[in-house]
Design brief:
By secondary structure, chain A is α+β, with helices and mostly antiparallel strands. Helix content of chain A is 23%, strand content 27%. Chain A has 24 helices and 47 strands. In chain A, the strands form twelve sheets. In chain A, strands 8, 9, 10, 11, 12, 13 and 26 form a seven-stranded mixed β-sheet that branches. Chain A has a six-stranded mixed β-sheet with strand order 38-39-40-37-31-41. Chain A has a six-stranded antiparallel β-barrel with strand order 42-45-44-43-46-47. In chain A, a hairpin with a 2-residue loop joins strand 38 and strand 39. The longest helix of chain A is centred in the middle third of the chain and has 19 residues. By secondary structure, chain B is of the alpha+beta class. Chain B has a six-stranded mixed β-sheet with strand order 11-12-13-10-4-14. A five-stranded antiparallel β-sheet of chain B has the order 6-7-8-5-9, with helices on one face. A three-stranded mixed β-sheet of chain B has the order 1-3-2, covered by helices on one side. The chains are: A alpha+beta, B alpha+beta. Chains A and B meet through strand 8 and helix 21 of A and strand 1, strand 9, helix 2 and helix 3 of B.
């Protein structure tokens, strides 16, 4: 095939002074700087540039606009290069993707022989039997499918994610987009203009390349935009999606920029659509607009003798334009009566172009995989002769590039005059302009862009009046049904996936009567082009099959991304937020094993050296029960409540009787939601008439804080609610020797008489200002020390040192949970669920229904009367390490589920496995026999017993324990 | 007896590289042993004493000490680089001047004014890398905020207050987050600053690079 570079074209994008050497499939070629790869290959005379996905049919340029993936290439470092829009790189070695043995030979083409047995959905029907063969078929299919290969040996490069805010984002740099931008150029607004091409202008460059008026407009617009210092232009970039709050990710070669705009003007134009007939995929068959782009931008002749198949006036214009560029147009085949084209028909005839009306191309014919001519079919009348040609240009209609508008929730209606969907109801701050808005004439598109900009200004000024916009085109620009099935098939609708009319027919016949189902069953529109060239024709087929209108059939959902975005653009930093308590390093130094608790990591158990886990847990347990233990409880929620209405707020927030809480004392409180469901628990401390401090569960701190703030706002209370969870550290020291450890460090009297159970004091520990609460979660005498985070690590170390003579031992969450289980203390979220009330969880003592008002009161009044469930203690002799009893195991009675285990563990004190279970109330009587189903289905017996399992009279945690020296 | 208070990000200051010492009773990296120039920088200012005053008497307490009353989410300077920040209604954060850190004012609670130590990581971040770094990690457009505005936002998933400091030696940012998030956030920022050929500065390095700004209006 001879080289096809034309002489210099006005406004061409190539730099003829810079030649670039490159290789394609092992053959050396030359292109120019400014070429894209496809233009350089066509200019070099390469007839076939790719192979199709399924049948490996030869392919070449179709849309030349990134609306198809006929030409998808690979280099050593990059897969799936879209050659139609990718700049040619000097000395690069390109090869086609998806070939076996190279592009020319490609043994994969033999698959086409199997086409009769590979209809749409074949893989849903085949390969099921024999079942053992499925892995083989799966491997084979995976091997044969897929496109470019990723080179995993390459080093990682990071592309930054950027965020930009602007007043107006204009998407599309064609006539309407340029007009909008120039209108906004003098305004005190930050404007961003995004266009897919290397240069602004859109169709001005090619469809109006010989129109002096258009050229003048373009030049003036570019000058205005270039001199406007508040307009930023993103060339060679595309808007990949439209998200809430008018956030649009703009993809450039350097990465993604997330643009958040106050106004978005969508001027994305239209996408030319192919006609469907036999062999419509042969190299040489292409869209007319693609041919014009090749000629005007890259000075490449896509053929020597061409035929235009058209369904609108645009085909006539294209034929005349290309003829003016020196190409030979043998004929125009009009799907309609040429007389309806008015003077254009006379013009083309006068220019020597043969005009054949009321006919279509029945079949494209080729030799060695490229076009050699077309067979025509008249709509009526005598047969038509074969036309020899090496180029067939399709100009049968357009689809709006409306994906972003759809994502923005624009409502569209089908305009039958225009043959296109048009936006009729746009969301606030979104405007459409130009051909995507159904306006085709150039002057009207420019006016529409200006009008969209004016409407944007009014919107930004807060005006709501409707804007005057140019009238939509009334001329039919899209043929309603350019689909011509052929008995011998090879009539392609989707070029990415090799989907034919016959495939759509199979799907419709099998009952896939919805456009979304049709898409998924056939994979039409699911390839890299995302249906840009195929969705409309598939919808036409479906509508025709069912005798419906195109408006009734509708379109498939347009999801981001507009073009596939390379994974390297999407891969971001791995931001996994984690929070540290100030003692994290100390825990690590003690060989802590970690437990995730939301953003926190907590020591689950400390294992010295290779200590057995059970031994480690037992050592921790024994230390707390017999000597003294220390645990980091900094993860507890901590909230300060202060002000004249502090008491009122807490009374409204908690069911407990807060009024009676004395200064210097604490109280265990449970929070419920509006439904009366337990949502959190904690300790409330009172430091003054108007000053309280409360703790919340590790996982509930944020929600509890929010809840209290909401109540404060709702009742307009004069109160300060300050969240301090992540600022204040907390350490719990518990056990009989607790006073012996703490008292020497404290400047306050820790004795029973001075500091009773549930008391709270402020003082200094080792010189650090701290708050001490005497609480007993683990069932021993204990003090919870709350102190500034910065001093916590030092205090921890000091306490370990001070406690060493008393056998102090750090203990982790596992031991803490066992200790509290022995005391029968509830963990909210573990022993309760999303519907548990205080009356079911033995927490009725935290509710004072006689209070006039509190969150959840109405619900609790009802729920208090007849609780459906009850949380009980149970014990069992089952002790099988291989199949232990575990939380969430079900309790079964007469083959019905009557409850579940919420907490369970071996109690060294009881010498057996004990637990808590939430049961249907009738089964919760003391002494009731339970059947608990293990993970393996086995049933183990258990007995409902009284709680707590340890120190039922609370003598240890409330007494003056501690051998203070 | 008084225990050592340590900056939540002390571990990032290697003793081989930094002189470690105390500022206002908190251990942190004081200065680099050898000052390495970097395009961008990150510094730990956590030792600067910060006090939260909350309650109906908070404003009066500030006024009584001759301190300014800022608007909500604004900071008002005092004594050179000290600042009072309006965090919420009747809630003010008093940030001691860096140079007066050791002699920061002592406040006491009263019946209508609660005084709390406001511990946090405070980091300073500047240089050419910062714009892209914030663009990547922060969801809001910082350019929309005036210098000295306190911007509550998320940075890499952490709740932070951001403040753009318009310093005559170069605009930069100060950010505050809780001590619990400090290790994660500071570590991330340090990594990103390093990626952009930036350096970690000690407390006094920063003070030297950005002295009290006499040129500011």
């Amino acid at each position: 095939m001879p080289a096809r570079r034309l002489g210099p074209q006005p406004g061409e994008w190539i730099d003829r002074s810079r030649r670039l050497d490159f290789e394609f499939e092992g053959r050396a070629h030359q292109g120019f700087a400014g070429d894209v790869i496809s233009s350089a290959l066509l200019a070099a005379g390469e007839p076939v540039l790719g192979r199709s996905f399924k049948y490996h049919r030869p392919r070449s340029v179709l849309s030349f606009a990134n609306h198809d993936t006929n030409v998808l290439l690979q280099t050593a470092t990059r897969p799936n290069i879209r050659a139609d829009v990718e700049p040619l790189v000097a000395n690069e070695r390109y090869r086609a993707v998806n070939t076996i043995g190279g592009l020319r030979r490609d043994w994969g083409r033999l698959i086409e022989a199997l086409a009769p047995v590979l209809p749409a959905g074949f893989y849903y029907k085949a390969f099921h039997r024999p079942r053992a063969m499925f892995p083989y078929w799966e491997r084979l299919i995976r091997h044969l499918t897929g496109l470019g290969a990723v080179n995993t040996d390459l080093s990682t490069t990071r592309l930054p994610l950027r965020r930009v805010n602007c007043d107006v984002l204009i998407i599309g740099g064609g006539p309407a987009g340029l007009a909008a931008a120039t209108t906004l150029a003098g305004q005190p607004l930050e404007v961003i203009l995004v266009d897919e091409n290397f240069r602004l202008g859109g169709s001005l460059d090619y469809a109006h390349g010989r129109d002096e008026h258009a050229r003048q407009f373009q030049q003036a617009a570019l000058t205005a935009i270039g001199s406007a210092n508040r307009i930023s232009v993103y060339r060679d970039a595309y808007a990949a999606g439209f998200y809430a709050e008018r956030e649009v990710p703009v993809v450039t070669r350097e990465g993604i920029t997330r643009v958040e705009a106050r106004v978005v003007i969508v001027a994305t134009g239209v996408i030319e659509q192919p006609a469907v007939f036999r062999n419509n995929d042969l190299p040489g068959v292409m869209l007319a607009s693609g041919a014009q782009r090749l000629v005007h931008r890259y000075a490449v002749a896509p053929f020597t003798h061409g035929v235009v198949l058209t369904g609108n006036v645009d085909g006539y214009h294209a034929a005349l334009d290309l003829q003016a560029a020196g190409l030979t147009i043998n004929a125009i085949v009009d799907l309609a009566e040429p007389a309806t084209r008015g003077a254009l028909a006379d013009t083309v005839t006068a220019r020597g172009i043969r005009l054949i009306g009321n006919a279509t191309v029945r079949e494209a014919r080729g030799s060695r995989g490229v076009l050699t001519g077309v067979d025509l079919a008249p709509h009526k009348g005598p047969p038509l002769p074969h036309l020899a040609c090496d180029g067939l240009l399709l100009s049968v209609g357009w689809a709006p590039a409306a994906q972003l508008l759809h994502q923005a929730r624009t409502r569209f209606e089908f305009d039958t005059n225009l043959g296109q969907s048009v936006p009729v109801e746009l969301p606030p701050g979104v405007f459409a302009a130009g051909r995507v808005n159904g306006i085709f004439e150039l002057d009207a598109r420019i006016a529409d862009g200006r009008a969209a900009a004016a409407a944007s200004l009014r919107y930004l000024a807060g005006e709501t009046a409707r804007s005057e916009r140019p009238a939509r085109s009334s001329e039919l620009h899209s043929h309603p049904y350019p689909l011509y099935p052929h008995a011998k098939k090879k009539h392609f609708v989707d070029f990415d996936e090799d989907i034919q009319l016959s495939d759509l027919n199979v799907a419709c016949r099998e009952g896939f009567d919805n456009v979304e189902l049709l898409k998924r069953y056939t994979t039409n529109g699911m390839g890299p082009s995302q249906g840009k060239h195929s969705n409309l024709n598939a919808a036409r087929f479906l509508a025709n099959y069912h005798g419906q209108s195109l408006a009734t059939v509708g379109t498939t959902t347009a999801r981001p991304f507009y073009h596939p975005v390379p994974m390297k653009m999407l891969a971001g930093r791995r931001l996994r937020v984690h929070w540290d308590t100030p003692m994290q390093a100390q825990h690590a130094g003690l060989n802590a094993e970690w437990l995730s608790a939301g953003h926190w990591s907590r020591p689950r158990v400390y294992r010295a050296g290779k200590q057995d886990e059970r031994a480690a847990l037992r050592a921790e347990y024994t230390a707390v029960r017999e000597r003294v233990g220390i645990i980091d409880v900094s993860t507890l929620g901590k909230i300060e409540v202060f002000g004249p209405d502090a008491l009122t707020l807490l009374n409204l927030s908690y069911p407990a009787a807060i009024d009676k809480l004395g200064i210097g004392m604490t109280r265990y409180v449970v929070m419920v939601d509006q439904r009366g469901t337990v949502s959190d628990d904690g300790v409330l401390a009172r430091f003054g008439e108007n000053h309280f401090y409360l703790t919340a569960g590790t996982g509930h701190a944020a929600a509890t804080f929010r809840q209290i703030k909401q109540i404060a706002a709702l009742y307009r209370l004069n109160v300060q609610v300050i969240e301090r969870t992540r600022q204040v550290a907390a350490i719990n020291v518990a056990g009989v020797a607790v006073r012996a450890v703490l008292q020497p460090l404290a400047d306050i009297d820790l004795s029973q008489s001075a500091f009773p159970y549930l008391g709270v004091r402020e003082g200094r520990i080792a010189g650090v200002p701290a708050r001490l609460m005497r609480v007993g979660f683990v069932g021993e005498a204990g003090f919870e020390i709350h102190l500034p985070s910065a001093a916590a690590a030092s205090l921890w170390t000091t306490l370990i040192t001070q406690g060493r003579p008393h056998g102090i031992q750090p203990f982790g969450v596992d031991t803490q949970r066992l200790l509290r289980l022995e005391k029968g203390h509830v963990i909210v979220g573990q022993d309760t669920d999303g519907v548990t009330t205080p009356f079911e969880a033995n927490l009725a003592f935290t509710v004072r229904l006689s209070k006039p008002q509190f969150l959840g009161k109405a619900a609790l009044e009802l729920l208090s009367k007849n609780p459906a469930r009850v949380l009980v203690g149970f014990s069992t002799d089952h002790q099988d390490e291989a199949m232990p009893l575990a939380e969430s195991h079900l309790v079964i009675h007469a083959e019905e589920i009557i409850g579940r285990v919420t907490s369970v563990g071996f109690s060294p004190h009881a010498g057996k496995v004990v637990g808590l279970a939430m049961l249907d109330r009738p089964h919760g009587e003391l002494g009731s026999q339970l059947n608990i189903r293990l993970s393996n289905g086995a049933i183990v017996p258990a007995t409902v017993v009284k709680t707590p399992f340890y120190d039922p009279d609370n003598l240890r945690q409330t007494a003056a324990a501690g051998n203070v020296a | 007896m008084s225990l050592a208070r340590v900056s939540p990000v002390l571990r990032f200051f290697a003793p081989e590289v930094f002189e470690i010492g105390e500022i206002a009773g908190m251990r942190t990296g004081i200065k680099r042993k050898v000052l390495t120039p970097g395009a961008s920088f990150l510094a730990d200012l956590s030792p600067v004493p910060r006090t939260l005053l909350a309650g109906p008497g908070a404003a009066a307490a500030l006024t009584a000490q001759g301190l300014p009353l800022p608007a909500l989410l604004q900071s008002a300077p005092y004594a050179g680089e000290g600042a009072v920040v309006g965090l919420e209604r009747e809630q003010f954060l008093v940030i001691a001047p860096r140079r007066g850190a050791e002699t920061a004012q002592a406040w006491t609670s009263s019946a209508d004014c609660l005084v709390l130590d406001y511990e946090c990581l405070e980091a300073a971040l500047g240089g050419p890398a910062v714009a892209s770094l914030f663009a990547e990690l922060c969801p809001i457009d910082l350019a929309q905020f005036a210098p000295d505005a306190w911007i509550p936002t998320l940075l890499a998933g952490c709740e932070v207050f951001l403040r753009r400091v318009a310093h005559s030696r170069g605009a930069h940012f100060r950010l505050c987050c809780s001590p619990a998030e400090a290790g994660y956030l500071f570590g991330l920022l340090y990594r990103l600053v390093q990626e952009q050929a930036g350096v970690l500065l000690g407390f006094n390095d920063y003070l030297t690079a950005y002295p009290v700004d006499e040129e500011r209006p």
